[in-house]
Amino acid sequence: MPEVALSSHRCDHMEAMRHFAFGLLAACAASVAYARGGGAGAKPPANVIPFGADWSCFHPRDDKAAGGETPRCERTETECKATRSTLVDPAKMTSCEAQATATVVTYFDPKRATWRFLASPDDDGCLALRGGLVSTKAYQRVAQCEV
Question: Could you read off the pLDDT of 64-80 as tens digits, one per residue?
Answer without folding.
Answer: 765 678 999 999 999 99
